[in-house]
Amino acid sequence: MFIRTKKDWELPESAVTSEQAYRTHNRRDFLKAVGLGAAGAALASRGLLAATGGLPAKENPAFPASALNPTAEEFITSYNNFYEFGTAKEQPKVLANRDWKTEPWTVEVTGLVDKPLKLDVNDLIKQAGGIEERVYRHRCVEAWSMVVPWDGFPLAKLVALAAPKSTAKFVKFTSFLDPKSAPGQSSGNLDYPYVEGLRIDEAMNELAFIATGIYGKPIPNQNGAPLRLVTPWKYGFKGIKSIVKIEFTGNEPINTWKQMQGSEYGFYANVNPNVDHPRWSQASEQIIGSTSLLRSRQPTLMFNGYEKQVASLYTGLDLRRNY
Ligand SMILES: Nc1nc2c(c(=O)[nH]1)N[C@H]1C(S)=C(S)[C@@H](COP(=O)(O)O)O[C@H]1N2
Ligand SMILES: [Mo]
């Protein structure tokens, strides 16, 4: 008899808050409803086209939609943090779709690597082996959360392509710089370009992901087109959008928010309900687009619910000091 062992990251049925809410937005139902041909055309896009044969992206059974309750697409794409296009949540949707071009888009992989790369994002997706879908929790340091069905590829694949040297200990990510199209970049709200970083072992963890799509469509500009980082066990600000450069380094990169306000935002930014932000509690979170009138907040989980996958990365590290 074949007994299937439940993987750690397959969340229990009890985690599902509203099955019906998801169905409305279930991409496979959507495909059935509109017919595959039309859907193919609708989905024919940069990443999805580039990933030949990967259309629509296959759900990674490790991170299924059925285990969580994905936030409606409308909320994911209209409640955004993207300071290059303003600090108000509704601004990026408008300002990032005015005259900012995210196609074509070149990505550079450089630094302490044997195989530096400079290539179009579509070629990068192809080289990384195409895309898959993963449904992840998304928790902002501002104490709100969503559940997002991402399309993309594991960051570990990109690390393998670059063949880092043994001296590479960190990965530094740099976002685009285009003040003419991104009004926030000349507003002084942050230092630009936006920079983020990971330890190399964090970058190689199975959860670390490069997203190129949401809900089976190319990632909208306001969510970080054409590719952004997703590290679901960390606060959202680690998920740098619209990446142009990925550099392997020997030293810990100084990430934008740490540089702006180091007493409040650190390098690690691991989701931790026991370590409050100096100005607010991190013990619970507002559920954006909640489908339940009775449940608009929920307790925040250690490492955002991904403790099993990532806790071993931080053995012996004081998480209160290394926030
Ligand atoms: N380049 C860039 N990346 C960024 C940000 C930003 O302002 N600029 N905001 C971060 C923050 S604070 C969060 S919570 C997430 C928001 O992603 P979303 O708008 O797709 O929900 O993006 C992160 N990545
Ligand atoms: Mo955030």
Number of domains: 1
Unreliable runs:
1-55
Number of strands: 13
Outline: globular
What is the mean predicted local confidence, pLDDT? 87
CATH superfamily: Oxidoreductase, molybdopterin-binding domain
* CATH level-1 class: Alpha Beta
Class inferred from helices and paired strands: alpha+beta
List the total number of helices: 11
**Secondary-structure element order, as H and E?**
HHHHEHHEEHEEHEEHEEEEHEEH
CATH architecture: Alpha-Beta Complex
Content of β-strand: 15-25%
Hetero groups in this structure are: the ligand Nc1nc2c(c(=O)[nH]1)N[C@H]1C(S)=C(S)[C@@H](COP(=O)(O)O)O[C@H]1N2, molybdenum atom
Report the biggest beta sheet as strand number plus sense, adding barrel if it closes: 8 strands, mixed
**N- and C-termini, Cα separation:** 47 Å
- CATH-derived topology: Sulfite Oxidase, Chain A, domain 2
Rg calculated over all Cα atoms: 19 Å
Concise overview:
The protein has about 325 residues and is an alpha+beta fold. The chain has helices at about 20-25, 25-35, 35-45, 45-50, 75, 90-95, 120-125, 155-160, 200-205, 255-260, 305-310, and strands at about 60, 105-110, 115-120, 130-140, 145-155, 170-175, 195-200, 210-215, 215-220, 230, 245-250, 285, 295-300.
